[in-house]
Amino acid sequence: MLAQPLNAELISLDALNLERGLVSGDGAGVTEWTLTHRIAHARVTAIRAGRDAIVDDTSSPRFLRDDWRTLTRALGADFRLIYLQADPELVTGRRANNHIDPRRGATYGMRCWLAHLQAFEPPGRDEHPLVLNADSDSRALLRALLGHFPPTE
After folding, report:
1. What is the longest distance spanned by two Cα atoms in the chain?
2. Which of 55, 73, 138, 153 is the most exposed place for a label (fewest CB within 10 A)?
């Protein structure tokens, strides 16, 4: 949704897992997720200078976000954290809808889902996230995001 108007490269960790023959929602272990993050870091590093990257990932726990900050500093790039804040009921409802709509792709199994909800670490104020309300419609979210990140030519 955001990559095209910003002329940015989209790097989705779920898509990387699919490339590797994994389904993110099947509870891939820490070792697999670590490798997926390394692949994502390599892809961000390979993007040509002057081009932006958008990394689509939950990035919880915090150390994953800290790793992205470290990488972008090393590359001389900016890091901006966008956090779509959602009530657990909204997220649970969307998860249920994803099971019904085959276009949505893989969804988390219940055990994996509950573990993710329990362990989730939202960004702290010291991380200076751009916090958006996930219950907004996608057009409103896009307008809000483009207000913070104007498209580049």
Report:
1. 44
2. 153
Domain architecture of the chain: domains with CATH: 3-147 (3.40.50.300)
Q: Amino acid identity of 101? A: D
Residue 139 buriedness (CB in 10 A; 0-12 / 13-18 / 19+): exposed
Residue with tokens 């055990």: 111
CA atoms within 13 A on the CB side of 2: 21
For the stretch 114-143, pLDDT in tens is: 887 888 899 999 999 988 888 877 677 777
Q: What's the burial of 51, exposed, middle or buried (CB within 10 Å: 0-12/13-18/19+)?
A: exposed
> What whole-number distance in Å separates Cα of residue 61 and Cα of residue 119?
8
